[in-house]
Each structure stands twice: as structure tokens, then as C-alpha cells.
Amino acid sequence: MLPTPLTTQVPYDLVYEPAEDSFLLLDHLEEDLPFLRTRFPRPPTGPNPAPAAGYTPVVVELGTGSGIVTTFMHNSIFPDRANGPGEPASAAVFLATDLNPFALQSLQNTSCENGGTRFLDPCRMSLGHGLRPHLVDVLVFNPPYVPDDQPVPAVPATEDRKDPGWLDLALLGGEDGMDVTWVLLNDLDTILSPQGVAYILFCKRNKPEQVAEIMVQRGWHVHRIGERKAGWEVLSVWRFTKY
Fold first, then answer.
1. CA 2 to CA 27: how far, in whole Å?
2. How many CB atoms are located within 10 Å of the residue 115 CB?
3. 3-state SS track over 19-60
4. Is 30 within a domain?
5. pTM listed for this prediction
6. How many domains does the chain divide into?
7. What sign does the CA torsion over 96, 99, 103, 105 have?
8. Three-state secondary structure string covering 120-187
9. Is residue 118 included in any domain, yes or no?
10. Which of 19, 36, 79, 215 lies at 20 to 30 Å from 160 by C-alpha?
11. How confident is the model at residue 159 (pLDDT cuts 50, 70, 90)?
12. In a domain, 61, yes or no
């Protein structure tokens, strides 16, 4: 089992605390490592690698929260590699987005607490709306999936540390919990590169099997790579690719 990153520098009154959904993502990203290594072979090491002998993927986590998933992806899925004495090279370029400024600071804290990397950029934006089209090779999203009878919360107007809206933003997904996730799914063809892969978490009340059917009709290959009961909720992780 790959190590779980530490997150002791995260203000949990402002940022979503890693829970069963976070750990489900980590576990199934680890289980899907052979697929990722086959799809994105690691470039060779050494001072003069052949230019076309490998590929450096762009890895993006949407809604990074504490940063535990991005840090895990960096440390265990696409770790830095040696490129000569004292010269680390990136096995991937990492971007992590969030609307919560306290989450972006937490990401940096979590990354540093677990070894850090030069190849990570936090970006304050909604989902991937500020990214160049077809940029993302590996996308990971633990969305606000909890159904609620109110619309998705608005972004707090100020960076007030006392505003509870920051946590609501990470949790509540509208009537069926899918309001935010559908925004991403409808844009997925624009966001992902041709070889891109997306890992998205759902709860049972999101009706992920119906979502998968719709996405298959749109030309996607959709696979459930894991499911787990977490208290009264059933969570699952699904993989979306074009081939």
C-alpha cells in the first residue's frame, strides 16, 4: 500500500477534511496505476534522454481542498525522477484548482509537508475554465456531490475566515448532487487531451450508472474502478476515456 500524505497544516474549519471519499480516490488511483503507466510511459532518465522516448503528462485535480490527492499523485503515481546528479526531472506537471483560497494555501502546505515539488501550480478558478483546451491528460475530481434542496452555494464574497460558505462550497451539489459534476462532464471533451483520462467520484444518490449510460452515448468509454460503503452512503470512482 502506498503511503497516505500527511495533512496536519490544513485549517479544517475552512477546508474540506480528507474523509472516506478522499481515501477511496487514493486507493483506486493506486489500483489503476498499471493503466496509467501504460497510457503514459515514464520518460527515460539520464542527462540526454531521447526527445520522443517518453511523455510528460499534465495532471490536474479540480477542487483540491486539502491537497491530499494531488500530493499523493505526485509522490506515488507520477513521482519526480532523477535526471542527473542533483537534478530532479518531472514525471508529470501538476495543476490543482479551487475557488477556496484557503484550500490553495493548504495544498501548498500539504505538498511541502510531504516533500514538495517544483512542478506544481495552484490555480484559483472554477473547475478547469481557465485552462487551455485539450491540455489535461489526467484529471481527478472529488466534486461537491451531496444532494441538497438548495442551489449550489455561491462563492463567499470575501475571504472571511469566519464564513461557513467555504465548506458548503465543497460539499453541496444541488438537488441531485450533480449540478457541478454535470458542468464538468459537459466540458470534458474540451478539457481532456486526446489520450486524456478523468477519474470522478460519485455517491449512489447521484445515480452514476445513469450518468455512465449518457456518457457512453456521447462516445466515452466509462468504467467503474471501485465502490465502497461509507457509513450510510455508497461511493464509487469512475474512469472516463475516449479510447
1. 9
2. 12
3. CHHHHHHHHHHHHCHHHHHHHCCCCCCCCCCCCCCCCCCEEE
4. yes
5. 0.92
6. 1
7. positive
8. EEEEECCCCCCCCCCCEEEEEECCCCECCCCCCCCCCCCCCCCCCHHHHHHHECCCCCCHHHHHHHHH
9. yes
10. 19
11. confident
12. yes
Which DSSP string corresponds to 70-110? HHHIIIIIS--EE-STT-EE-SSEEEEEES-HHHHHHHHHH
Q: Which residues form the domain of 232?
A: 20-39+55-241
- Output phi, psi for 175, to 5 deg: -55, -45
Q: Per-residue pLDDT averaged across 82-88, rounded?
A: 56
Q: Between the CA atoms of 5, 32, 205 and 234, what dihedral angle is there, to the nearest 10 degrees?
A: -70
CATH number at residue 114: 3.40.50.150
pLDDT of residue 137: 98
Rounded CA Rg of the chain: 18
Buried b (16+ CB within 10 A) or exposed e, 125-164: eebbeebeeebbbbbbbbbbbbebeeebbeebeeeeeeee
CA–CA distance from 241 to each of 39, 105, 154 (Å)? 11, 31, 31
Neighbours of 117 (CB within 10 A): 20
